[in-house]
């Protein structure tokens, strides 16, 4: 039971990192992406390659994952963010579909459908971290660091620029703000920090494959942000905790066939998001919309 609880803590922390980093561009800049799982996956595959071929130290795996995700996000953001927001949504969706194909076919790097096996456990200053209880400390510390970095950015002049762009791009531009550049930097930061979750995920499970990085995963992370509350500090974490605990809660109902649990989860996600958009658009943590 103890191992099960710590396993949940690890998964919640990892997905909370994803939700917090997506919220950085969704909640503060108004940039909606359907490709967050791509950077999650690229971070996982890159860190796995480094761990297997160089060294499993997190001082190598995490920076390598962040650099790979930042480079890919730059290729997406530079052309897509020079136009209106809906074009970025379409471009991110295209990247997500393309990435799944590449993850499935690039067998020398990703292992194809079979995935990558026997990923070494995370190495922290020469100490291997493989027990769920010990890894929970690492994942929670990583979440706290990511939250602190984003919080510092949000409350800096850069964060004020993001909120100005969120409110009105044309008004921000009229005050001399380089809107495409600010949006591009925010996407690169979001993607690089999302790769931290990928690196943790790979070393924790010691096995990854493409099924963890599909469009469903991107939609799940977006649901966490929306349900918890966009543009809030605690909202993404609350959303991640709720949606990661949901499968465990559903599994307690013995009368439900195991094969139907996944479909029931999707129904609950969709219904929850619909009800929140109607009755509480700001999410669970966000402020109630004024009548």
UniProtKB/TrEMBL annotation:
A Pfam family recorded for this sequence: BPD_transp_2
Parts of the chain that traverse the membrane: 6-25, 32-51, 57-78, 85-103, 109-127, 134-154, 185-207, 219-246, 266-286
Keyword NAD: no
Subcellular localization(s) per the UniProt record: Cell membrane
Keyword RNA-binding appears in the UniProt entry: no
GO cellular component: plasma membrane
PANTHER family membership: HIGH-AFFINITY BRANCHED-CHAIN AMINO ACID TRANSPORT PROTEIN BRAE, HIGH-AFFINITY BRANCHED-CHAIN AMINO ACID TRANSPORT SYSTEM PERMEASE
InterPro entries linked to this entry: ABC_transp_permease, LivM-like
Top-rank taxon, per record: Bacteria
UniProt GO MF annotations: branched-chain amino acid transmembrane transporter activity
UniProt name for this protein: Branched amino acid ABC transporter (Permease)
Keywords recorded for this protein, A-Z: Cell membrane, Membrane, Transmembrane, Transmembrane helix
Membrane topology: Multi-pass membrane protein
Chief subcellular location: membrane
